[in-house]
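Predict the 3D structure for this chain.
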Amino acid sequence: MSQKPNILIVEDDENLGFLLTEYLSLEGYQITLCKDGVSGLSTFENNRFDLCVLDVMMPNMDGFTLAKRIRSLNGEVPFLFLTARSLKTDCLNGFAIGAEDYITKPFDEEELLCRLKVCLR
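Done. Predicted structure below.
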């Protein structure tokens, strides 16, 4: 049996973070949740992840900066943004940084799950 994919979620909304953790854990993923960009970076530096799900608007370090730092540390780990920032310029910036996907809130859980599976292929 293969190991569960290990996903880092960096989300400052405690309720959403909890819901994502519970939902994705039930779907067979191993989840690590961080509540800001600084703790997300530290956690990424000290662990191995198969995928990162990043919010954009967070305290201490925004998701775009975090994504750039993650990409500089490991160019192989895929990441996607899950954010309320829906402007075209934000989306284009996310893809320019190297995101595999850019999902705006509110979102459908089943669609998120499908997009995660695609990123993990």
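DSSP finds five helices and five strands in the chain.
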